[in-house]
Amino acid sequence: MSEPKVQLIGVLGEATSQDYSRMKQAEALLKEWENSPSFFATLQDIFYDRTVDYNIRTLSGIYLKNGIDRFWRRTAKNPILPEEKKAIRERLLQFMEEPSKKLTTQNAVIISRIARLDYPRDWPDLLTNLIRLMDTASAQDPNEAHSIHSRILETLSEVLSELSTRLLSSGRQQFAQISPTIFQAVAQIYVVYVDRTIIHLQQINGNMNQEGLLEELNIVATCVKCMRVLMVSGVRDVHKYDETRTFLQVSRKHLEQYSGCRCGLIQINHLGHVKQSVENIIEEYGSLYVALQKRHPVSAALCPAWLDIIRYYWQNIMIEGSHIVEQCNSGTQDENTVVFEPFLLQGMLLIKDTIKNVSSNAGQLGADLLSATDEEKELATEAGRLINEGFLTPDFVNICAETLVSQYMLMSHSDFNRWEEDPEGWFNNLDIENWEFELKACAELVFMNLLSQYRDQLVPIMLTLVERVATVTDKQSLLFKDAVYNAVGLGVNSLFGKLDFEPFVMNRLVAELENKNPNFKVLRRRIAWLLGRWVTESISADCRKVICETFLQLMTADEDLVVRLTAASGLKQAVDDWDFDISTVVPYLGSGMSLLLALLKEVEESDTTLKVISYINAIIDRTGADMIPFAAEIVQLLISLWGPHTEPLLQSSLVVTFTKITSEAHIYLLEDSLDLWWTILQSAPASSPDLISLLPTALDLLDYDTENLRKTLLIIDSYIMLDPQATLQPANTLVLFTKLASKIGQSREQAISYMVHTLDLALQSVPLQMYVESLVQSGLLTSVLRVLVENEIFGFAIMNCMNLFARISIYDASVVLQVIQLTAQQEQISGDFLNNILDKWIEKFENVSQERARKLACIGFTNLVLTGNPVVLSKLPSIMDIWTSVGPDLKSSDGSDVLYSEIDLEGDIYEIDASAEKSRKHDLSHRDPVYTIDLIQLIRQTLNEPNISTIANQVDATILEKVKKLLN
Q1: Residue 899 domain-assigned (yes or no)
Q2: Locate the Importin N-terminal domain: which residues (predicted)?
Q3: CA 575 to chain CA centroid, nearest Å
Q4: Does the residue 736 lie in any domain?
């Protein structure tokens, strides 16, 4: 074993360690090596070596895959060399006999990622070699071949999926050229394993080797998946190739056989992995048919077997519909029932697209044509004729509509359970467009398409159904009535003008709502929904009033929550109509808003709250000034919903509502209030209890509005200068520091500068003992330290962060050292963290130009030296260099010491108008240690310390000479 391989195995072993520090060190080393020659080839060698620990092999495969994603392209930074790429490619197909399924899956993904980039230019024989490997495996013992076939087909499936998604026309053309050949090879293997698995499934018993059967079933599913990709994205005209036509013909027979095997497994109570694998194959067939119809509707319809496939699905939909009705009536649902919903859902999708694609008026397929030529238009017309004559017959249309309404649009047992267990969640899910994943929702969409296409034929049937459900005698008739009313609501566009809706409301629906039996809440919800669907149509004012009264009746507190929410949604629809007459709703506005606000107080989920607020917003929009009497109550309720943990989407909705209530002037209200508050504080000659009582509000504002952060911080600054003892009590400083700690790491440079300035002002104003515990407990200094070392901010913000630690060093340098040590422990940072921090601090110092900040940093460094910390003393040469840089700037022209520049003082206060605060800030600045400390004297004092002077004498003679010159 080569030395690099041994080293890499060792580091990968460390990377799998449960010890966090060892793992991080190993990851850092792997990142350092990733640009080394042959690094990824060595990873592949480890990945393929069965003598290596399994976890190490798995990790090496992950690093290899990630490296290919990052470095395989020629345009990547530090790309993998061509020689190493070639070596990796040559070994990729030698992994098919690996026993570990997980590792071969990793290898298949790796091959597919490389194929997407290298095929066919740099890897022209990839697919040819995969086919050759399949043929070689087929010649082996069948009991051994299936394992290799499984690995090869899994790889082929991944490769085809990647190649089929290439967008450039050249890539699509290449894929189309190779698709027929690969399809033929896969089809040969498919036929062999279909025959074997069906025989085994028909003879299954407890003694059978299920592991081998499961692998063979997986091979069948993978074959179907491969052929789906080839037929959908590769073979352009599936009706022109014998292989694809034949496959569609036999696949329908095989689908029926596997469906029969599934029923047999259920009958003998064989419900484990074998049943799941059979169901997976059935779903793969469905996925193939659905995808083929979407991509090539004309070509698919021209295949002789296509209509047989559609009919087979429809026959099962009719048969299984009776089982679904039995489940609804019995109130039970068995997970191991014969009803297989994914299979039925795929059938629904096929029928939906068949109806949608074929126009009954034009008689031709109106979907994606193969080309715009006359020949292809004729093919589209022919395909449409075949479907209309062979499937979408008048008898089918009638039976399909009745089947959908009477069997598939019924509320299920699971619907009732979810309604009872989570009414808000169930209500919110009704608005989600999930027809591709739920059988009932898909059935509703199929019904809408069917009614739209065959309106004249189906409207009389719908009117008959409405009359049939006039009387409810039991649960079954109640569910059927709910389904019929559902159909009436979904078909509003087709039924409008055919159904005499106003008498239907007055004489039928209103009377049905008088039944208060709790079991009838299903019908009460449906009526509220139905009225919401129809209320936007051309309805008389009298009927609209009845509908509004009905909504209000269904929103009262004694109604079920789902019924109330549905009625609220209907009320919103009633006022949101473009033909809305405000006089219709004004008489009900008071009770309507009271009921909506009561509902808003009651709901708990944020999604439901958003919906109810949207209903209120719609009503406010349409009623305008008529809402003024309710504005105060609405505002108070919305304020109670606002808090620091309110979801952003809900906050936006609340702001929209505030906007609608308070008019456009609301935008300036908060900003104007803050300006007024700040002006009062600046002008106040002294503190007062009333002013201090508002301080908690200022601290709370830090939770919400980033736009007004600057003004909020200015207000807090004014409080600090006005009454530092009251403002910086431990309870207040802990709140302030904690809030700022949470913001500093997520803010921009300017905002960080504002926050650090407030902290600096606080540090100047009261003794360190008052706030040191709050500083540590809040994690504020740790947050500032993290910002300083992560190099994600620049300029003025960095200077302010440095100033903060320098400021603390003036008062107690040991606190700075303790915080740095604590941060290293909390962040689990290895190595000499203090040394790294000092290096960064010294490095950044050269970017500081303001004299005040330079002197502050210089004093801070000097006080750190006075602690005698060995790490700090090791930086003495650099710190002495800072002394010689800052010191001369403080010398006046006549050589006397300038303790502080008055220009810097003016820079802080010149923007403030003449006020009491200007005097307070001026006094505070002159008490600032940076102003009062004699830097030259501090340096002399420092060098007089015995342990420091000893080290100082060992510093470079040039620096020593500069320091002596400064001190003299």
Answers
A1: yes
A2: 26-98
A3: 34
A4: yes
Contact 822, 782 (CB under 8 A): yes
Is 267 contained in some domain? Answer: no
Tens-place pLDDT, residues 319-329: 998 888 877 76
Counting every residue, how long is the chain? 968
- Range with top average pLDDT, 311-315, 474-478, 850-854, 917-921: 311-315
CA distances 354 to 306, 366, 384, 418, Å, are 11, 10, 9, 33
- 285 in any annotated domain: no
CA geometry: angle at 750 spanning 746 and 754, to 5°? 90
The two tokens of residue 463 are 């009117």
Give first-to-last CA distance, the chain, whole Å. 68
User: In this structure, what are the phi and psi dihedrals at residue 891, rounded to the nearest 5 degrees?
Assistant: -85, 130
Quick one: tokens of 567? 């009625």
pLDDT at 606 over 80: yes
Mean pLDDT over all residues of the chain?
Answer: 85
Report the alpha-carbon distance of residue 968 to residue 953 in Å, rounded. 17
| Res 910: pLDDT | 38
The reply to whether omega before 120 is within 30° of 0 (cis) is yes
Check: CB of residue 713 under 8 Å from CB of residue 681.
no
**Is the CA virtual torsion 723, 725, 726, 728 positive or negative?**
positive
Question: Is residue 400 a contact partner of residue 448, using CB atoms and an 8 Å limit?
Answer: no
Task: Please count the structural domains in the chain.
Answer: 1
CATH of the domain at 743: 1.25.10.10
Q: Which tens digit of pLDDT belongs to each residue from 520-566?
A: 999 999 999 999 999 888 888 889 999 999 999 999 999 999 999 99
Q: How confident is residue 663, by pLDDT bands cut at 50, 70 and 90?
A: very low
Here the tokens at position 911 are: 């923007």
Range of the domain at 910: 667-967
CB burial readout 502-530, b (16+ within 10 A) else e: bebbeeebbebbeeeeeebbbbbbbbbbb
Q: With a threshold of 0.85, does the pTM exceed it?
A: no
Phi, psi for 365 (deg, rounded to 5): -75, 120
Structure tokens at 342: 């994914």
Residue 120 phi/psi, 5-degree rounding, is: -95, 0
Angstrom distance (rounded) from CA 598 to CA 579: 28
